[in-house]
Amino acid sequence: MGLLNQASDTDEYWLTAGGHCILDAAERWLVEVTQEQLADLTRSEWTLELLRTLQARPVAPGDMVSDCPQSPSHTTVWRTLQAFAEYGWCESSSNSYHLLPAGKRTLEAYEELETIAEQVIAKAPFLQRLSPRWSDFPTHALPEANLVVSKPDSPGLVVEAALKLCDPRIKNYRSLISVYSPTLFRAYYRLLSMGMSGEGIIDTSVYEKIVQNEEMQYLLDTSSYEHYDLLRLDERLTLGIALYDDQKVAIGTYNEIGDGQHTAIIVSSHEDLIEWGTNIYNSYRQRAVRTECPSD
Questions:
Q1: 160 and 258 in one domain?
Q2: What is the pTM of this model?
Q3: Does residue 231 sit in the same domain as residue 112?
Q4: Which of 11, 28, 10 is nearest to 20 (CA)?
Q5: Measured in Å, how far apart are the chain's first and last C-alpha atoms?
Q6: Is the confidence at residue 257, as pLDDT, over 50?
Q7: pLDDT, tens digit, for every residue of 44-97?
Q8: Helix, strand or coil for residue 135?
Q9: Torsion angle of the four alpha carbons 280, 159, 168, 175, in this order, in degrees rounded to the nearest 10
């Protein structure tokens, strides 16, 4: 599930970003319910279904009883409804029960936890690599995000996905770069000649590799285009962000242990993810400095 990371040479474990997401959601859930209530609600699938039915319409005890062998008895349904009433989740009126605001909040909190758990599993390759320092990551936006992961037998999948985002119609492109990829650099640099405004922030590892490769040093010369700027950070990152006209964001991340050296990215047009990526980009931009071309 990608909830824990372990150092390869020690027995030390720590929560991944996915683990923090689950923990935070569970803590919010436990604000709404006690351990006793949680046990009652999750004892069987039909118990939760009963609460969901109450959200849709008033329920009489006999409404949940059918000829299906898995269906609870009339007595069991009645006792469960009585327990819900004691918890303040529902109340009885005219031989039926209807949901109260506390019951609605309980159900919403559970469904939030359920959705986050599903997304933590579905997006585990990304969340396992995302540093826990980004604890404000908008997990609720993950269902709409597309995930791409590079693998030992398919190392170019992430680069291929990034190239597909290299659209000549882009007017403004900003990127926080922690992975050295000449293929991507060349593709996006060509868009500058088509009128795109581009700004990049490269970490120290990427800067050093560009300096060492004479064929890529043209990236450091920002005088060729008025609408092009390149900055650098005096630190190494494991996070990459690309912002496309403030309408789409690609977030890439990797770690340096185990199989985590392969990159995972998510691509989304969700406004909360775009805002999250923009805020991080701007925070690094404040600490970045101008790059210098070795030939200057």
A1: yes
A2: 0.80
A3: no
A4: 28
A5: 50
A6: no
A7: 878 888 899 999 999 887 777 665 556 788 888 888 899 999 999 999 988 889
A8: coil
A9: 20
81 and 186 share a domain? no
139 within a domain of the structure (yes/no): yes
Task: Please indicate, yes or no, whether residues 133 and 95 belong to a single structural domain of this protein.
Answer: no
Q: Over the stretch 24-41, which tens digit does the pLDDT of each residue have?
A: 777 777 777 887 888 888
**202 lies in the same domain as 229:** yes
What six digits make up the tokens of 123?
Answer: 């997006």
- C-alpha angle 189-192-193 in degrees, rounded to nearest 5: 110
Cα dist from 53 to 37, 43, 107, 122, whole Å? 18, 17, 11, 28
In a domain, 153, yes or no: yes
Q: Establish if 295 belongs to a structural domain.
A: no
Please check whether residues 191 and 243 belong to one and the same domain: yes
**Structural domain harbouring 256:** 124-290
pLDDT digits (tens, 9 = 90+) for 164-200: 999 999 999 999 999 999 999 999 999 999 999 999 9
Residues 168 and 50 in one domain: no
Distance CA 236, CA 21 (A): 25
Residue 7 has pLDDT above 80, yes or no: no
From residue 36, alpha-carbon distances to 43, 86, 87, 174 in Å are 11, 12, 10, 50
